[in-house]
Amino acid sequence: GLGARTAGFCPGSGRWKVLRRFALQTLRNFGMGKRSLEERIQQEARCLVQELAQTQAAPFDPTFLISRAVSNVICSIVFGDRFDYEDQAFLTLVGLINQNFQLLSSPWGQVGMYNLFPGPMSCLPGPHHRIFQNFEQLRLFVLERVKMHQESFDPNCPRDFIDCFLLRMEQENQDPRSYFHTETLVITTHNLFFGGTETVSTTLRYGFLLLMKYPEIQAKVQAEIDQVIGRHRSPSVEDRARMPYTDAVIHEVQRFGDVIPMGLPHAVIRDTWFRGFLLPEGTNVLPLLFSVHNDPTQFKDPATFDPAHFLDPSGGFRKHDAFMAFSMGKRICLGEGLARMELFLFFAAVLQRFALTPLVRPEDIDISPLMSGLGNVPRPYEFRAVPR
């Protein structure tokens, strides 16, 4: 079902372990957590800033601009290159991802995704069918990219994630037990592409909306940026350690926005007793992350957006055990390191150059989600990016 497609692979098999380990190692080799990847994000942040400057402080909806910038980072790792922001195939791709995230967060999408009524759902008309159609279009796009890579593949010089996977396929092509073949390459690439685009871009959109709702918080972030980075050089990951307030704001955006509130479906690998209930082997389990992020025993006032949730009494950044924006356990988001880098560098680059100005009074900004299901989707909004 769709839950298995979006989460990855059959939870009980060894396949997901092998492919996850490969994906993590390959991402590290291509710079996850290293300077080479930082430079890719910095490049994309500069492109985003240039696009914002071209709006000339006119009102605009940032949804697709932010999605294109974030998506291009994972594109450079997976496909070997970024796309021009006006590339029609790229625009279609980003549109499909954005639409699917909204559909998966709707009531129809939740029923379809978690397969509550698989028989009736396949017969009933409704927008849940669009989810599968969109995923199929994304799959075909990835498959076409894989074919292009196969035609120009040089085993002595892998260029990106797809080439590394093709190399492993070549090395194991005589092993009937190998998990490395075209089908798993397409699924893995699709998961990296979808997961590496929507969650970070939605978090950024929520963050910009919250900073307009609370302009005093935006001003404090910009004061810290001016003090630590200044106005004339690109933010770097090293700056984060000297910017506790900005780091706290980003963590609070993730906690409060709670972009994936229900987590992704898991399955128990053996009969499991939990609080007096038997969960038979194969039972789907949803880790409700929102219950932790809104726990008043863990956060002083969980219904309020307050960076102090991640600050100690002296104003230093404070880690919080109840922060689970990337889930937890063996299936914790494998792109956590990449996402942390992106959120900090994109936030800092935009706020370094622009004041984000709403079109309505801050007190009139609605920060409740447009819809809440697989994801919390912020309401559409426009703002002005006013040069500082």
Keywords:
two-stranded antiparallel ribbon, Cyt_P450_CYP2_fam, metal-binding
Mind explaining what this structure looks like?
α4 packs antiparallel against α10 and α5 (88-104) packs antiparallel against α8. The strands form 4 sheets. The chain has a two-stranded antiparallel sheet with strand order 1-4. A two-stranded antiparallel ribbon has the order 2-3. The protein is built from 14 helices and 8 strands. The protein is mainly alpha-helical and 388 residues long. The chain has helices spanning 2-7, 15-29, 35-54, 63-78, 88-104, 107-113, 118-123, 128-151, 161-171, 182-213, 215-228, 244-257, 289-293, 336-353; strands at 266-267, 272-274, 277-279, 284-285, 354-358, 371-372, 376-377, 383-387. The protein has a single domain, classed as Cytochrome p450 (Orthogonal Bundle). Heme binds at residue 333. One of its GO terms (molecular function) is oxygen binding. Its cofactor is heme.
Q: Secondary structure elements and their pairing?
A:
Elements: H1 2-7, H2 15-29, H3 35-54, H4 63-78, H5 88-104, H6 107-113, H7 118-123, H8 128-151, H9 161-171, H10 182-213, H11 215-228, H12 244-257, E1 266-267, E2 272-274, E3 277-279, E4 284-285, H13 289-293, H14 336-353, E5 354-358, E6 371-372, E7 376-377, E8 383-387
Antiparallel strand pairs: 1-4, 2-3, 5-8, 6-7
Helix pairs in contact: 3-4, 3-14, 4-5, 4-10, 5-8, 8-10, 10-11, 10-12, 10-14
Rg computed from alpha carbons, rounded to a whole number of angstroms? 21 Å
Largest sheet: 2 strands, antiparallel
Q: Please, how many helices? A: 14
CA-to-CA gap between the ends?
Answer: 49 Å
- Which regions contain 5 or more consecutive residues with pLDDT less than 50? 1-12, 113-118
Oligomeric state of the chains in view: single chain
Global geometry: globular
* CATH architectural name: Orthogonal Bundle
Pairing-aware structural class of the strands and helices?
mainly alpha
Number of domains: 1
Percentage of residues assigned to helices: 40-55%
In the CATH hierarchy, what is the class? Answer: Mainly Alpha
CATH homologous superfamily label: Cytochrome P450
Tell me the series of helices and strands, N- to C-terminal. Answer: HHHHHHHHHHHHEEEEHHEEEE
The CATH topology: Cytochrome p450
Question: What proportion strand?
Answer: 5-15%
Strand numbers in spatial order across the main sheet:
1-4
- Count of individual beta strands: 8
What is the arithmetic mean of pLDDT? 87
